[in-house]
């Protein structure tokens, strides 16, 4: 019998593979000299990494503009700069999880990295924040790292441009059928 990891099992099922639960807080960690030396070299490369990420974000912005039911990050205010750590999109119609699955089946890994803090068990909150919950339910992070080629980004854009309208049509068709 083939053994599978929890990750593999989650990917086979239609679950949110990116979800995890924090039940307690972690400790402070201090790195060693070797890892610190690697970090210093990488830090010197940071301006190039950020510049590449900015070009990727601009390519996403151009490629995804005008897709019905899709919201991309707004332009930064004048005088502000981003590290482009992530590139998020928001989709309407309750299709986020299906979009993530469809993209994954095309070899494009997406995630939703940070749940609303009032939903993290470690904080013990009983807050009711429907706006935060709504935003979380609609948000998906597209691949974003300096190693992406223009062809990689174009492939993601093409897949999103194909999947979102198709999923919205199916979603709207189901809701109309229930009327």
TrEMBL record:
InterPro entries: DegT/StrS_aminotransferase, PyrdxlP-dep_Trfase, PyrdxlP-dep_Trfase_small
Taxonomic superkingdom: Bacteria
Entry cofactors: pyridoxal 5'-phosphate
Signal peptide: none
Name the record gives this protein: Uncharacterized protein
């Amino acid at each position: 019998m083939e053994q599978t990891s929890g990750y593999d099992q989650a990917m086979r099922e239609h679950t949110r593979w990116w979800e995890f639960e924090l039940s307690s807080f972690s400790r402070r960690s201090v790195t060693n000299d070797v890892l610190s030396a690697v970090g210093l070299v990488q830090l010197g490369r940071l301006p190039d990494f950020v510049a590449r990420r900015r070009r990727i974000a601009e390519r996403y912005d151009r490629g995804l503009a005008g897709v019905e039911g899709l919201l991309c990050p707004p332009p930064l205010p004048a005088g502000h700069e981003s590290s482009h750590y992530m590139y998020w999109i928001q989709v309407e119609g309750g299709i986020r999880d299906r979009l993530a699955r469809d993209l994954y089946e095309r070899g494009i890994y997406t995630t939703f990295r940070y749940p609303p803090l009032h939903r993290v068990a470690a904080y013990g909150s009983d807050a009711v924040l429907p706006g935060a919950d709504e935003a979380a339910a609609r948000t998906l992070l597209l691949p974003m790292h300096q190693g992406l080629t223009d062809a990689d980004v174009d492939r993601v854009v093409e897949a999103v441009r194909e999947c979102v309208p198709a999923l919205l049509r199916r979603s709207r068709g189901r809701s109309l059928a229930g009327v």
